[in-house]
Design brief:
Blueprint (H helix, E strand, L loop, with lengths): L5 H7 L22 H14 L3 E8 L1 E2 L11 E2 L6 H18 L5 E9 L7 H12 L3 E12 L6 H9 L4 E7 L3 H6 L6 H13 L4 E8 L6 H14 L3 E6 L21 H17 L3 E3 L3 E3 L4 H7 L4 E3 L2 E3 L6 E4 L4 E3 L3 E5 L3 H9 L5 E6 L2 H16 L1 E3 L7 H16 L3 E4 L2 E4 L7 H6 L3 H5 L12
Parallel strand pairs: 1-4, 1-13, 2-3, 4-5, 5-6, 6-7, 7-8
Antiparallel strand pairs: 8-10, 9-10, 11-12, 14-15, 15-16, 17-19, 18-19
Helix pairs in contact: 3-4, 3-11, 4-5, 8-9
Length: 454
């Protein structure tokens, strides 16, 4: 490890937002939105986008609890929950279809969870056909699913391919048995390889592997070993995430303590080692935490300056309207966010009463929209240019002060108000983005809100 990075790790390994949205959820103003305001926002953006939209569907059920996961999930082995939940999701989509003024053009569908393949192949087909039956599917559509290899069959992938799915993301995290035991996710390389082979057999055009560094009991050698095995799978993309330790949010993470977790310097070595190995395998770094081969569509999008980032992660599609279906899903109309009820029962109850199941949200003001675009530009393109007159004078002074320090540390270049991420800056992109976060500047929250930067 380069010795000069050690002071930066200590200096910048502090809690900051992950910026899957701006404003980030803790700063939302729920009183700014209601169902009628959300409907108007969705309709207006739908019209502006000429009917193009993306759909995220949250399928929360898992048979097994992975303790590293902070996602909204329901652990059960009772598959009788499938039918009523899917019927609720289809009813929710029907509510949206009733307010949209024309036939939607679906550019992207993403099934997340939970474990989406908890649902039977037949139920997943029923779900997708129910959503697409009265809609156009864009020729360049991306339909993707997150899968846990242990609960995925060839029948799942064959059925999904028959209704347009062309992208798959496999959760791996780490193949070290010690790490797998403590995070309660025992998963063999052989089973993972089998699912990858099925995906290729059924012509999925892009295969992603999710890896995490900084997990409890994880070592540099286990990261190296895992990436060596992943090389044999020949995926098109790699998501190499930093583990987010948020035990105040996800109680299952209390199974282990800070003593079980690698130090920031060890996490840095894990990242550096992983990045070096992925580079040797032909992967190019893309945005934050992502790598892709040069012939992958995501790399092409980066090259053309068209990569986008939303609640579903990095994507090649840039629709400004995302309809979130299912419990806890977040919808995005670019100038407004709306989140569904998080509990399955409350979600289904509202749906069955004919009510959109919104529980919170936020209407973005002009400043929010401006800052959102700056953060997207930093995370997707590695640069942005700010207007000094667009910020509160006191905040702008603070921005310049923080950016000057980041420049001295070799993380950015600042020239004529243009910020360019440089050197080791990609690892600290959340910290760089936070300098422009007006809501964070005005009301800095306690440490038990965001995960650490590294």
């Amino acid at each position: 490890m380069k010795e000069d990075i050690l002071p930066l790790l200590h200096k910048y390994d502090v809690p900051v937002p992950r910026y899957t949205s701006y404003p980030t959820v803790p700063y939302w103003e729920p009183e700014s939105i209601d169902i009628d305001k959300w409907k108007r926002a969705a309709i207006d953006t739908f019209k502006q986008e000429d009917g193009a939209l993306s759909i995220y569907i949250h399928l929360p059920f898992c048979e097994n609890l992975c303790t590293f996961c902070a996602c909204n999930k329901r652990i059960t082995k009772n598959h009788k929950v499938e039918e009523p939940y899917l019927q609720a999701v289809l009813k929710e989509w029907t509510m949206y279809r009733s307010i949209l003024p024309s036939q939607p053009i679906i550019k992207e569908v993403h099934l997340g969870g939970g474990t989406p393949t908890f649902f039977s192949p037949e139920h997943l087909v029923e779900l997708i056909e129910g959503i697409t039956k009265d809609a156009q599917i864009a020729p360049d559509h991306e339909f993707s699913i997150e899968v846990h290899p242990n609960y995925t069959t060839e029948a799942h992938l064959e059925a999904l391919a028959s209704v347009g799915f062309n992208r798959i993301s496999l959760g791996v995290q780490d193949f070290d048995p010690v790490v797998q035991f403590i995070i309660n996710r025992v998963q063999s390389f052989e089973k993972t390889r089998e699912v990858v082979e099925w995906a290729r057999k059924h012509h999925y055009s892009s295969i992603n592997i999710d890896l995490i560094y900084g997990l409890p009991k994880q070592t540099i050698s286990s990261v190296v070993h895992t990436i060596g095995l992943v090389k044999e799978l020949k995926p098109d993309r790699i998501a190499f995430y930093s583990y987010a330790h948020v035990p105040w949010k996800s109680k299952v993470q209390r199974r282990y303590t800070d003593e079980n977790l690698p130090k920031a310097s060890e996490k840095w070595e894990m990242y550096q080692s992983g990045m070096k190995l992925l580079s040797e395998q032909g992967f190019e770094i893309i945005g934050m935490d992502h790598f892709a081969l040069p012939d992958d569509k995501l790399f092409e999008a980066v090259s053309k300056g068209k990569m986008h980032r939303n609640f579903m992660g990095y994507t090649t599609t840039q629709t400004k309207l995302i309809v979130g279906l299912g419990c806890s899903s977040i919808s995005d109309a670019w100038n407004a966010f709306a989140q569904n009820e998080k509990e399955v029962e409350k979600y289904q109850e509202k749906i069955n009463q004919g009510i959109l199941p919104l529980v919170t949200g936020h209407v973005l003001n002009e400043e929010d929209v401006m800052i959102r675009q700056h953060i997207l530009d930093l995370m997707c393109r590695g640069n942005t240019e700010i207007d000094p007159h667009a910020f509160d004078p006191s905040m702008y002074k603070d921005i310049v002060s923080k950016l000057s320090v980041l420049e001295e540390d070799g993380l950015i270049k600042l020239e004529n108000n243009k910020i360019t991420v440089s050197g080791n800056g990609a690892l600290f992109i959340r910290t760089i983005s936070s300098t422009l976060d007006a809501r964070l500047w005005r009301k800095h929250m306690g440490t038990n809100v965001f995960s650490k930067a590294i």
